[in-house]
Design brief:
By secondary structure, the protein is an alpha/beta fold. 30% of the residues lie in helices and 24% in strands. The protein contains ten helices and 15 strands. It has helices at 28-51, 71-86, 186-190, 268-286, 301-307, 310-318, 344-349, 353-363, 368-376, 389-407; strands at residues 6-11, 56-60, 90-94, 114-117, 123-129, 132-139, 163-169, 196-200, 206-209, 214-216, 232-239, 242-249, 254-261, 288-297, 328-338. A six-stranded mixed sheet has the order 4-3-2-1-11-12, with helices on one face. A six-stranded mixed sheet has the order 5-6-7-8-10-9, with no helix packed on it. Strands 13-14-15 form a three-stranded parallel sheet. Helix 1 (28-51) runs parallel beside helix 2 (71-86) and helix 4 packs parallel to helix 6 (310-318). The mean pLDDT is 90.
Length: 410
């Protein structure tokens, strides 16, 4: 029955015209490239679709970063769709929690090749090829910012089609790290007879199931150190009940977290040489890269260099680039990590002050309430909305390092 082969691009979370708010301090030429990166990644997606001669492109929600998107984002998207139209490539688009449809005038003003799931009810749209309905594609769009109910029961196979493909913007019911929208269970999806589940919402690439594929492609361009590594889309080929998935990176600028060992540095000036070497490697591997550097040392002097401003000087010196070359590496932030030269367990057994302190650190797993005064500070609250668990753990670690290094100095 399923003889005809179909192929498509599965993408999601384009977040066109993301403002990259936290990167306002980077040099102008670099910031301009960052601001263009979501559009450049879209262009790379279009070129890939054309090169692979796919039948259609799926965009599973959050095509725009905001419900009130910019005119530029609209025009760029429309232009991309026109390019695909010129190559007879169809587009199936649904909106997500970021670009929900309420109050938006611009939800389906596209060329004829673009098919929009315009309301919150799951519907199916046909894809026709060589005179037959080659695929039914199912999806829905967010009307408001949040959908809290499970949408999977609404996905019901309809009509005669060679393949049935479901698009869903939402999260695994168990994923509490992100806003849980349209929560689903993989088991529910597997019990249905769809050939492919094209997910969106979570920006990290993830294949939740192989047969049938239940897949998050992740976003196409990282936007912060939390969205590091390769970002892109899947090229999917379906034939005779077999699915072949190939990931293609599309990111124009890469975000990376890098650990730099400066234990051997006896003078803060040596850090610059170590950094230069590492950054040259980064440019080679990644092209354009925004880094978060963790300086690591087994010498407590690293903490002094941070406090006296030497580390900041070194980073500033390294960052003095114009961003006009075809590859560059820019350090957007850094933190320090010092190897313990004490044994926590041994220390905690003692009845001296450092032992008590170490015990307290180990017993305290949540430091949220100690951070409250910072969040309430009138200046800080303009910039800080809160700390993630990861950030809290990092702050706690640094506090422990600072206190212990001072206490055990002699
Ligand atoms: Mn998103």
């Amino acid at each position: 029955m399923k003889k005809e082969k179909i192929s498509f691009i599965h993408s999601a979370d384009l977040h066109l015209d993301s403002p990259f708010k936290g990167l306002g301090s980077v040099p102008g030429a670099i910031f301009e490239q960052i601001r263009e990166s979501t559009f450049d990644a879209l262009q790379a997606l279009v070129l890939l679709a054309i090169e692979k001669k796919v039948d259609f492109v799926l965009i599973a929600g959050d095509v725009f970063d905001e419900n009130q998107h910019s005119l530029k984002a609209r025009m760029k998207l429309k232009g991309a769709f026109e390019q695909l139209d010129a190559h007879d490539i169809e587009v199936y688009l649904s909106y997500g929690n970021h670009d929900f449809t309420a109050g938006s005038q611009f939800i389906d003003q596209f060329p004829e090749n673009v098919h929009v799931f315009s309301d919150q009810q799951v519907r199916s749209l046909p894809f026709r090829k060589n005179g037959v309905t080659a695929a039914n594609i199912y999806g829905f769009s967010y009307r408001e910012r949040a959908i809290t109910e499970n949408k999977t029961p609404e996905y019901i196979l309809e009509g005669q089609a060679l393949y049935h493909i479901a698009m869903l913007h939402g999260s695994l019911h168990s994923n509490t790290e992100h806003d849980v929208y349209a929560p689903f269970h993989v088991q529910d999806m597997m019990e249905k007879d769809f050939d492919y589940w094209a997910l969106g919402h979570i920006h990290t690439r993830d294949v939740l199931n192989q047969q049938p594929p239940i897949v998050y492609p992740g976003n196409i361009q990282g936007r912060s150190k939390k969205e590091s590594g390769e970002k892109g889309c899947y090229h999917v080929e379906l034939q005779n009940g077999e699915a072949k998935l190939t990931f293609h990176p599309l990111q124009q600028i890469r975000f990376e977290n890098m650990k730099v060992d400066v234990s051997m540095c006896s003078d803060p000036q040596d850090i610059i040489a170590v950094l230069e070497k590492q950054l040259a490697k980064c440019k080679n591997y990644y092209g354009k890269v925004i880094l978060h550097v963790t300086f690591f040392s087994n010498q407590p002097t690293l903490q002094e260099w941070q406090q006296t401003g030497y580390l900041e000087d070194a980073v500033e010196f390294i960052n003095d680039i114009d961003g006009l070359d075809s590859t560059w590496a820019y350090i957007q932030g850094y933190s320090i990590q010092i190897a313990h030269n004490w044994n926590r367990e041994e220390l905690a057994k003692g009845h001296h002050f450092a032992g008590e302190l170490s015990k307290r650190f180990q017993e305290t797993d949540k430091i949220g309430r100690y951070l409250q005064p910072i969040l309430q500070h009138r200046k800080a609250r303009k910039y800080l909305s809160g700390f993630t668990e990861e950030e809290q753990a990092e702050i706690k670690q640094q506090a422990e390092d600072l206190l212990m290094n001072e206490l055990l100095k002699k």
